[in-house]
Amino acid sequence: MADPQYVANTALGPIPEHFPELVKAFIHRGLACIAYSGFYNLLATIGMGQFGMATEAAIREYSLQHGLSLIDPNSKPYGFHNLINNLKRDSLLDDRQVDFWKSTVKLRNYLLHPEENVALDYSIIYINIAVITEELLILFPPPMEVACRTLENP
């Protein structure tokens, strides 16, 4: 079992303030679960499931920001996979991004609809958090004044 204090210090990094509110809420819940997973390892997997929900919320928000509908012609909400395809169709995601976001659909589905208890290794969790955060920063770059402050004070 991992040391809870180490897990908490590693997992609870700052969430970029400029991310959409729902994305931040899912990330916050995910990090909280991961932080407490030192006491019960399966909480880390639940936490990564929340990151999966954050990625879907991000794609929905990104679609809205670019004027795409979240509702299909039959008046039903588009699924995560269809939203990614619509963003690709409108050249708002490149091939690499499409591959990445589709892989998050698979991970999210695996974690949120498990056929058995899944205990992810912490190294996988931390790498996924870092990569998901990097990809979210591509969709939602920091406002110019934040980026300038960061460059001035690295």
UniProtKB/TrEMBL annotation:
Superkingdom, taxonomy of origin: Bacteria
Keywords on record: Plasmid
Identification of the protein by name: DUF4145 domain-containing protein
Organism classification: Bacteria, Thermotogati, Deinococcota, Deinococci, Deinococcales
